[in-house]
Amino acid sequence: MTSEITLFVNPTAGRGRGAHAAQPAAAALRARGFSVRTVIGVDAPDALRRAREAVDGGTGALIAVGGDGMASLALQAVAGTRTPLGVIAVGTGNDFARALGLPVREPAAAGEAVAEALKGAHTRDVDLGRVEGTWFGTVLASGFDSRVNDRGNRMRWPTGRFKYDLAMIAELAAFRTVPYRIVLDGETVHEVEATLVAVGNGSSYGGGMKICAAADMSDGLFDVTVVGDCSRTTLLKVFPRVYKGTHLDHPKVTVYRAAKVEIAAPDITGYADGEPLGALPLTAECVPGAVRVLAPRAVAG
């Protein structure tokens, strides 16, 4: 492995934590004899182009410094290659880092963990989801949660997480279920009225909401969580349980497992790793061992 390591930095992540987090990460790597190069794009397409150039140029590892959006961008550069990916998670959600058992919002500890993994060649291969050439590490979300994202993204004020809290309140006021058509592995078809459908490679989204709590990133399968035709009152009762994953026991919740999932519903946008993919229908495939990560063998629950 070459000793040159690339830090892929989002300086605005976590209200500026990204810029500060790059410093201890770089220091930890240099202390172990690695040469560190920093990549910051003027926008997402430019950043991705620079990251791909680093990977094509033989960098020893690509280290994403930021939140889930930055980790998602990094996946587009390293998926399908043997270049290992590290994550210094300092964003708002950080669900990809959580799924890998990595420190969250502790840049010094995360930097040390990456440096130790590189020095000891401690890597492992994990699965990724893929939708029409776009890779994702955690969850493809659709339904109520994606409508909240849609509304929040349209709002100019307020900023930060509070904007999405307000968007959720507004969507609850306009709550409705949606007719879904779900096809599993090209064979099993489910036509249901659903509140939401989440296709999970990882277990959580939204900063620790364990919507697909039992998802395993090394089994070659998605966990598909379907929240059925519940009422607004039932949704409000079940929603708090998602942080512990105990919502999976509710009679309105069903979980399927499949390597390929097709979901269709009218007027619904799909979001993967928090980023918009486009309107349904969408088809997701689980690709075993698609990315090599600098992470411990044991995954945090």
From TrEMBL:
Cofactor names: Mg(2+)
Domain DAGKc, residue spans: 1-135
Pfam families in alphabetical order: DAGK_cat, YegS_C
Cellular-component GO terms for this entry: plasma membrane
UniProt record, GO biological process: phospholipid biosynthetic process
Family that this chain belongs to: Belongs to the diacylglycerol/lipid kinase family.
SUPFAM superfamilies documented for this protein: NAD kinase/diacylglycerol kinase-like (SSF111331)
UniProt entry keywords in alphabetical sequence: ATP-binding, Kinase, Lipid biosynthesis, Lipid metabolism, Magnesium, Metal-binding, Nucleotide-binding, Phospholipid biosynthesis, Phospholipid metabolism, Transferase
Keyword Transcription regulation carried by entry: no
Molecular-function annotations in GO: ATP binding; ATP-dependent diacylglycerol kinase activity; metal ion binding
Name of the protein described by the UniProt record: Diacylglycerol kinase
Listed InterPro entries: ATP-NAD_kinase_N, Diacylglycerol/lipid_kinase, Diacylglycerol_kinase_cat_dom, Lipid_Phosphate_FormReg, NAD/diacylglycerol_kinase_sf, YegS/DAGK_C
Classification via NCBIfam families: PRK11914.1, YegS/Rv2252/BmrU family lipid kinase
